[in-house]
Amino acid sequence: MNDVVVGFIGFGLIGGSLAHALREQNPKHKLTAYCYNRNKVNAGLTKALQDGVLNDIVYELEDLGECDLLFLCAPVLSNIAYLAQLKSILKPDCIITDVGSVKGNICKEAVALGLGSQFVGGHPMAGSEKTGYTNSSSRLLENAYYILTPTRETKNSITDTLFQLIKSLGSIPILLNPSEHDDITAAISHVPHIIASCLVNMVRKEDNEDKMKTLAAGGFKDITRIASSSPVMWQNICLTNTDSILRFLDKYIHSLNEVKESLQLNREAAIFDFFQDAGEYRDSIPNTSAGLLNKIYELYLDIIDETGAIATIATLLATNLISIKNIGIIHNREFEEGVLRIVFYSQNSCEAAASLLRKHNYTVYER
């Protein structure tokens, strides 16, 4: 894309990371963010303006009328509500996209409003429990899968333009239809978040003397980490991807009942197969180590996507006698941090590596 006007509604972790990446790749683009309350200081927008990431902050939606590309980065329900307000404001050739993790509802609404030809649903598979512009980075999107879901009316030229733009930012664009996307994310993201929160709440209700909290570590913290994510965001997701979530929740509940029955009837073979099948499938997922309940000594870090970047890190660790168990780029980093994941054989090695890499000015995230 040539020099364009890019607008943002919602400017947190994902919006900020997109803006960082766009600014680095296209310094002449005009980046503008909408602030719905001119009487309340928005620290993130102010900081982005000071950083030179944003060119302007506007307080009226009408001021987004000149946008060539508009990212909706607010919570899912808010993004849907904004479409109706934007219909009479945006240019007919303005590309509209969002970054929410539910696509069916907003794609249907875009078509119903007559915006289907210029709308492409978007979902960058990257993120963190940490929120806000201050935690954003262009590296967040690098080598991450970025799902695009055109509506049935989206012009091919608009889909192609957005596809190439996302690719130029260092992400890996993938085209899916909205319903397929929502089923996939329900199974691998939405239901797991519900399960993690259920586990935490179960322990919370039973932990009268805080003994469980005191002893909780390792496996429990690993499999419930995502329960720390934004409750507003997950409320929105549950209210907009309800059908898919309910379908996979039913399958999960059925699986739990099968395990319960096997335990009640002391079915040794069934219990063994249950754990074996789960372990084999999980170990087949790229960039994984042992099963969820085993202690994993890992760290994540940001690296520049250039030839030799991983080799440089591996050499640095090797020359300091730090052994690596596994290393690889993370493509699906939703609610994860860092582009590169490194697994070690021991806690001491992990801590030594983190210290060494920080001394060499790498940004390191520890688990």
Automatic annotation (TrEMBL):
- UniProt-listed InterPro entries: 6-PGluconate_DH-like_C_sf (IPR008927), ACT-like_dom_sf (IPR045865), NAD(P)-bd_dom_sf (IPR036291), PDH_C (IPR046825), PDH_N (IPR046826), Preph/Arog_dehydrog (IPR050812), Prephen_DH (IPR003099)
Q: Where are the transmembrane segments?
A: none
Write the record's keywords in alphabetical order, separated by commas: Amino-acid biosynthesis, Aromatic amino acid biosynthesis, NAD, Oxidoreductase, Tyrosine biosynthesis
Q: Does the keyword Transmembrane helix apply?
A: no
For biological process, the GO terms are: tyrosine biosynthetic process
Q: Does the keyword NAD apply?
A: yes
Write out the catalysed reaction.
prephenate + NAD(+) = 3-(4-hydroxyphenyl)pyruvate + CO2 + NADH
Per the UniProt record, which EC number(s) apply here? 1.3.1.12
Q: Name one GO molecular function term.
A: prephenate dehydrogenase (NAD+) activity
Superkingdom as given in the UniProt entry: Bacteria
Any Pfam family the entry gives: PDH_C
Boundaries of each Prephenate/arogenate dehydrogenase domain copy? 4-293
Q: In which pathway does it act?
A: Amino-acid biosynthesis; L-tyrosine biosynthesis; (4-hydroxyphenyl)pyruvate from prephenate (NAD(+) route): step 1/1
* Gene3D superfamilies named in the record: 6-phosphogluconate dehydrogenase C-terminal like domain, NAD(P)-binding Rossmann-like Domain
Its family?
Belongs to the prephenate/arogenate dehydrogenase family.
Annotated PANTHER family: PREPHENATE DEHYDROGENASE, PREPHENATE DEHYDROGENASE [NADP(+)]
- Name of the molecule in the record: Prephenate dehydrogenase
